[in-house]
Amino acid sequence: MPAKLPILLVDDDPQLVEILNRAASQVFPLAHFIQISSFAEAATYLDALKEHGPRLVLLDIDLKDKQSGFDFLSLLREHPQGKMVPVVMLSVESDEQIAEEAYTFGANAFTQKPDTYADWKKYVKLLKLYWFETVTIPKIWLKS
Which of 40, 45, 35 is nearest to 12 (CA)? Predict the structure, then answer.
């Protein structure tokens, strides 16, 4: 069986990783979502990586921290190899100004969070199609 594809989910909603992993089991079984719920946890996770990092990052803009998703994206993009990790920024709002800010900070994509399980399932299927079947993502080693 092929190795799981790690996808880092930086989001403070404790149910979201369960929703994504359940959806993935049906439409993208190789995906393995790893949830980090704060900027501090995300920074610690990146610092502690001993193998290849995540193949994709789903990053909520609004974290219940002093730091936002934009702060984490800035930290990730400061690392030489962190510049190559694709990041999809998520928000409950579909706002052109927020989208513009996400791209300015270095996001590769900006999407509004789906509302229902069925929509999350479609979202995961589209993640698979685009990020893992259409484009080539390098395996990144995030240690200095």
Answer: 35
Residue in the block written with tokens 């995300």: 42
CB 35 within 8 A of CB 17: yes
Domains identified in the chain and CATH numbers: 5-134 (3.40.50.2300)
* 56 closest CA partner among 20, 27, 26, 22: 20
Amino acid identity of residue 142, one-letter, is: L
On whether the pTM is more than 0.85, the answer is yes
Percent of the chain scoring above 70 in pLDDT: 94
CA distance 11 to 58: 8
| Type and span of the H or E element at 45 | helix 39-48
